[in-house]
Amino acid sequence: MLLSQSYREVWSLRSKLIFRFIFSYFLLYILLMFTSSLFKTPFKWIGKSLLGFSYDFDVSGYGSGDNTYAYITLFVNFVLAVIITFSWSVLKPNRKEYNKAFYWFLVVLRVFIILAMLLYGFVKVFQIQFQPPSFVKLLQPLGEFSPMGLAWTYMGYSKGFGMFAGLMEILGGVLLIWRRTATLGAFIVIGVMTQVAMMNLMFDIPVKLFSIHLILMASIIFMTDIKRFLSVFIKNKSTEAYDFYHPETSKSYHKTISIIKKIILPILLIAGCVLGYLGQLNISDQNHRPALYGIWETKTFIKNNDTIPPLTTDSHRWRYLLIERKGKAVVKTMTDKLVRHTFETDTTENKISIYSQYSIKDSLNFEFDLPKPNLLKLWGKIESDSIFVTLEKKDLNEFPLHSRGFNWINERPYNK
User: Fold this and answer.
1) Model pLDDT for residues 98-114, shown as the tens digit of each residue
2) Is 10 helix (H, G, I), strand (E, B) or coil?
3) pTM, whole model, 2 decimals?
4) H or E element: which one contains 58?
5) Nearest alpha carbon to residue 134 among 307, 393, 329
6) Residue of 270, 248, 269 lying closest to 258 (CA atoms)
7) For the chain, what is the radius of gyration of the CA atoms?
8) Domains in the chain and their CATH numbers?
């Protein structure tokens, strides 16, 4: 085997070259993931002078993991790994084995993957990463969705599916804690993250590089036990128990490590559950519903005593007023333009203040009346124009995504 977790006195030249490269590459990758911003000056120079990126780009990527700077960092990562591998091979040509270094390298990979799987798993279980379709999404025509927006809405619609995906990621990460279950853990991680990577690739989600690297890391761990896996599952042959190499043979050391693992596991799981629950409370729709929560559809829009007809070419007439979260409101005009506002409601005085999203100086002050739970009347001024708007609350159960639910029995496909 090229790579193995059992002790080998002499490694083949190919095994040593592969180890030197993957050791250099992946440790650099993990290091640069947290420190690449410190090298923005030389990295930007490399991008513009050597790689020919003539446009300006931001180091942060605005939340994208596949931005230009990330690819420059990956290029530097690869080149440095090749240089280190070559230099290492020249300086240490007669080194017979790297058992100890490979052991600690796998420990680093396992810890990194464990933390990544627990993080991504818990944010799915508690519906933090993928949230239910917002009012804006419910009213948005399918053709206007971006591929990523469609994928995010698909995942966010079903809490159960998101929880399942998250639990599988957590399971893969937890199994990597122990070496005897690491092969199974790596196998699960490869399966789960391949599905994630394919979604990232096919739906243009900018976490492609990271998800692919997690698959590669898990594959390295899995490949160390590939011979036994093939014997059992492919060749239908018996196999022997794995003789794991460990640089430390002291029984007290192994006992201490075992105790630490037993302590850390519940701490990680409890911390993940607590932080996930608190995160869910912070973003949950139920905990941020304002007084006028709902999709309000404009029935009459009167401007300076003239009733404005609902023409789809009118960019000023409101079509919907979307009030979904405290302090936020979105106006969707007849041309489907979305205007986002900061929103304040005084239910005592029956007054509303709507501010520009980017300024608290430019405000629209309205009075309102709620004669029925599903009927809202607003009046006030927009600049010098007097406005009177009557809105009707849309029943969310009119949307099949809200009302359909789960059904064991389907007499015919309900595919709208």
Assistant:
1) 999 999 999 999 999 99
2) coil
3) 0.91
4) none
5) 329
6) 248
7) 28
8) 1-96 (no CATH), 98-287 (no CATH), 294-398 (2.40.128.270)
